[in-house]
Amino acid sequence: MSLTVGLLAKWLFVMKQNHDYFEYCNAVAENDLAKCHELQSKFDRLETLYADWGEIELVADDPESESFKQWLKPRESLFFNNVEIKSISDPRSYVPTQGHLLLEIPLLDTKSKTIEALREYIDKVYDAAQHDTYDSTNDLGLRLRAKPKYQLLDSTTRRRKVVCAKLFTFGIGLKQGLY
Predict the structure, then answer these.
(1) N- or C-end of the chain: fewer Cβ atoms within 10 A?
(2) Pairwise CA distance, residues 179 & 176, whole Å
């Protein structure tokens, strides 16, 4: 188990201690819009947290458990940076992968012009994919490396001790209803 998965399990444990979060989960399950609105007005990020974390009551705190793995799978991009941009040195050896696109990108006069041209192309690819006219067997040698929404550990700017202290503080805030 990695350090970040262990920290995520601790975050999950702390989230499960928050009474207001569970009230919100129950209100959503029962379609009690008045209760949802009441809690959302009290905690401005509650709706977003629920959209990200979902119903967590039955999810085990153990990262090795099947329920934890099933809960995490659709949420990995919220916590982990599993996608990377990389250069393909020999396109002949490249093996196409579903959901990827191999491109040759011309470097234009300026960085902004190059980015704009790439953005326009990617927009066309996504538009075609929405209309089922795009075949993604010609995959991406440049993989996007977007930052995850919740960064559990950033080794360049934070140390383990700082992250653990913040996690502890976050847990206290949850118990006191601050989040």
Answers:
(1) N
(2) 8
